[in-house]
Fold this protein.
Amino acid sequence: MAQAQKPNWQYPLAAPPLKDGKPRIEGDLLARWQKVTVQIHELATANGWSKAEASRRADMVNGTFNQIYDGTYAGNFESFIEKLENWIASSTAMNALIDIMPVEPAFVMTKTAQRIMQGLQYAQAAPEMVTISTGAGCGKSSVCRHFRDTSPHAYLVTMRPRTKSTHNMLSEIAHELKIKKGAVDMLDRNIGEKLRRNGQKPILIIDEAQNLTNEAIDQLRYLLDVYECGIALVGNDEIYTRFAQKNGPSFAQLRRRIGMRINITRVAPEDIEAMIAAWRVEDEDIAGLLRAIGNKPGALGHITKTMQLAGMIANGEGRPLTARDVQQAWSNRGAEG
């Protein structure tokens, strides 16, 4: 990881330049200005921020920020000094919180993750349309992100209720692919040309696909049929029931395009053990609590969030993690007993 560059910040002056032969600020306000400018200098140089970046983070106009820092501001310093003091206090508190927050383990290739990866690989290689549905907390979104980050020509777009229609879905895909939207009737073609196979093996992964209308999904079938782009519809159980169950709606044209269906209702016991190992838990009491948590709806997601909060509790008190911390974190998250 590259080290942060140290911008050429002038060290704060002892006092602002005189104005018409008189001090611009005096007394307590001068002391506050001296303190806050030194704090800004330390914070900005430690993080490699330019003055423009520091002013953006402080939510101040760059010119005003520079004049306050240099002591050349012609107006009333007090309100801006107060704003900078509040920003510094907030940044300091946030940094302190980050310092005690445990780092989430890197991507864990669980048994469930392997099944999802196989489905994505098949969609990309064939190419085919696959549906992947999981229960909450199985890690499907993190698998999709990992696949996108480690596979060439893989694109990931996450849907939401607002993007359920065909046009809004295409607009979201175009944004991800950095395609200028242009004319509405050309949007699908422009996307298709970007995703055309052409010796490559593109795949478009649609996360939270349950938010899409059937018409929008049929538009994705067009990308598969015409441009040979693999399509993965990833979401909750509705994706499975909509196109797989015998008593579901009859979408014959779509059904016959689906080359693989993966439906995972809950995480495997091996997944929970892999996550416990990734958190480097050796205390059997803590491990037992995490196994119980991992078997509840929310599964692996609950384990991660609970361990992060429990770790903050323990680190904040400067001591090792205990089972009681995990119990307290689980309770504080509003979870059931």
About this structure: The chain has a mean pLDDT of 90. DSSP finds 15 helices and five strands in the chain.
